[in-house]
Every structure is written in structure tokens, then in C-alpha cells.
Amino acid sequence: PTSAPGSFRVLETAYKLIKTCIEHDCVAISLKIIEAVAMRLDALAHLDTDVDEARLRQCNVHYYALRVHLAWIQGRPDIADHLFLKLPDLNTGDCCALDICFKVGSSALSCRQYDVAAKWLERGLQQCKVLVSSSKESDVALRNKALLTLHALVRANKYLDTHDSRDNLARALEQLKSLYSNVFSIRLLELEVLARGDRDVEQYFQGELCHYNLEQLLIFMAVLQDAFKAVDASESSFRMCGCPARMTRQLSNP
């Protein structure tokens, strides 16, 4: 189709096809489709007729997000970084940029590229904040994505040992505790971080630096008690809804 509405429908179908190809490791086909998408976007940008600018901007966000993912899959993190910086205005209410940041960050985390993972997950967290600020109502799906992103961000930063990573770790833990304190896996993650003996993070838990003594054992016990309370609260909610159970199982298997 040469009209704008027809082109938008073609692009939406192409994006779905690219994602399906990526899921089935058909990267070569995805690359060919993305080339055709680029030409279609260029044609749309130069149409003489009126074009829905908001919809075109959203299509451009999807295009660059998919190119970021493809660059990462091809082992080109440098190109993925470059393409991410070319993303248009991200305040579109769409989660595609967040999803790509989480996918790249999670992939880097599984490959033990902790610094790279932390960078992409931090980007994902910033996308969450943009989406939350533009959303008028509470979005359960977005809250779940924010939970997964924060959880992965903590896991990435706890393997790093720089001043920035310690600050980011304490900040991410604080957000997790304030927003998702009733999630059992979050309480377990707190215990895991405490076990590292990182004094900067100990300050997060009790407000002052401490050494390995009775006070720290009390901290462990307090967090563990909160974890058991979270289990009790979760069990009652699981009977009402199965969705949180799936999320908790996913978080409990880092």
C-alpha cells in the first residue's frame, strides 16, 4: 500500500514478523525485513499527504528498538549502543524500548557481562519512569516489568565493585523494598545482598555502618521474618489470583 494507513499496517505486521523470526533464531530473515521497513519509513516521511506524526514516531521507536536487539544478537554491543541513542522521543506510552532494554540487559546478565547488563537495565528503569509518569492510571503490567527490571538490576550491580555500582545497588534495593516489600523473592534478594558483607549496602539496611556482629545477625533475622510474612501474604493472594505466582516463580529462579 502506498497510502499512509496502508503503510502503517504493513509496518505493524513487519514488526511482529521480525520478533517471531528473532524468537526462532532466524536473524538473517529479520535483517532482510528490517531493511524493507527502513525503506517504508523513509517513504512515509516524504509523503506529500498528511501523515499521523505520532504514529510515525511510534513506528520509528519500534524500528530502532528492533535494530538494537538485532545488533546485540549479532554480537555488536557498540552498534546497539549507537542505535539506542538514536531512538526518537520515548514518551509514546509504548513499552517496546523498555522491553528491548530488559532483553539486552538480561542477556548480558546471563553471559556474566555485569557492567553491560547494569547499563541496559538502568536504561530500562528510566523507561519505566517515563511510562509511569505519562500513565494516568495504575498499570499492573508496567509494575510487573518494573519489578523484573529492578530485580535484574540488583543482581547485575551486586557483582560489580565500584562506587557507582554500590550506590546503584543501594538505590535499586530501596525502590524494591518500598514498592514490592511483600514479594518473597525480594526479601530473599535482600538476604543475598547482605551476605556479601558490603558496608555501603549495610548502611541501606540499618542506617549506619556496622561490622560482623550481633547487630548484623539481628538484621538478617528481621529481613527473614519479613520474608516469612511475605510468604503468608502471598499464599492468601495466590488463592485469589494465579498471575503473581508466576511472577514470583520467575523471580525466584535468577
TrEMBL record:
It holds the Pfam family SPO22. Keywords: Meiosis. Transmembrane segments: none annotated. One of its GO terms (biological process) is meiotic cell cycle. This is Protein ZIP4 homolog. The lineage of its organism: Eukaryota, Fungi, Dikarya, Ascomycota, Pezizomycotina.
